[in-house]
Amino acid sequence: MWRGRAGALLRVWGFWPTGVPRRRPLSCDAASQAASNYPSCWNCGGPWGPGREDRFFCPQCRALQAPDPTRDYFSLMDCNRSFRVDTVKLQHRYQQLQRLVHPDFFSQRSQTEKDFSEKHSTLVNDAYKTLLAPLSRGLYLLKLHGIEIPERTDYEMDRQFLMEIMEINEKLAEAESEAAMKEIESIVKAKQKEFTDNVSSAFEQDDFEEAKEILTKMRYFSNIEEKIKLKKIPL
């Protein structure tokens, strides 16, 4: 108890017990150096300071800043870097960001902010669309791990799978009735659900080669889905 009181008195009088480390305030030079490590606002020149990650506006002058080129889609959309994404939360984040950066809200601002707004809005749209769909989300997640799937990968697929794709494409080409189309849609939907579950497990186990193979198959079935949509459009 006495030591606590003595320490308080010594702090008031300007002394400090020998051997007890004392925290010194930053000198002017050190403070300036720390501030210079933070990005500066293009408009007022002020540092953004810590916590920049979720700031789109300068805290001093409120000018919209340029998009951060080092920020990935998961960080931008406030999602964990994982294949499993809460799509409801993703949609809410998308709406929140568009209310902040959509060009409609910057019609009376400087040209620089108008340009930044366009870039932010495009980036938010791209991030939302990419993370919303399982296939594009998986491909993007692989890309963050340095793995990309070439467009033409027939040579890597097993013969049985390619035969399955050919059969479905033939059925689609021959389908004339609504019932036949629904049957094909049902098959494709079930396969995509199976692939989505399997690729989710692969990512959870950090098995990126397995994830790559499954996503390649998903891309084949995604192409069939596009063909189904086109066939439904009346000529």
Distance between the termini: 90 Å
State which percent range the strand residues make up.
Answer: under 5%
Q: Tell me, what's the shape?
A: elongated
**Which second-level CATH architecture of the domain at 159-232 applies?**
Up-down Bundle
Structural class: mainly alpha
Can you count the beta strands? 0
Detail the poorly predicted runs: 1-35
Helix content percent band:
55-70%
CATH class term of the domain at 159-232: Mainly Alpha
Mean pLDDT: 84
Number of helices: 9
Major sheet summary line: none
Q: In CATH, what is the homologous superfamily of the domain at 159-232? A: HscB, C-terminal domain
How are helices and strands ordered from N to C?
Answer: HHHHHHHHH
Structure description:
- With 235 residues, the protein is mainly α.
- Among the domains are: 73-132, Orthogonal Bundle (Helix Hairpins), CATH 1.10.287; 159-232, Monooxygenase, CATH 1.20.1280.
- It has helices spanning 2-13, 28-36, 73-76, 87-101, 111-132, 134-144, 159-174, 178-204, 208-232.
- The radius of gyration is 28 Å and the shape is elongated.
- Mean pLDDT is 84; it is low at 1-35.
Question: What are the defining features of this structure?
Answer:
mainly alpha, Helix Hairpins, 9 helices, 0% strand, J_dom_sf, ATPase activator activity, mitochondrion, cytoplasm, metal ion binding
Write the layout of secondary structure elements.
Elements: H1 2-13, H2 28-36, H3 73-76, H4 87-101, H5 111-132, H6 134-144, H7 159-174, H8 178-204, H9 208-232
Helix pairs in contact: 4-5, 5-6, 6-9, 7-9, 8-9
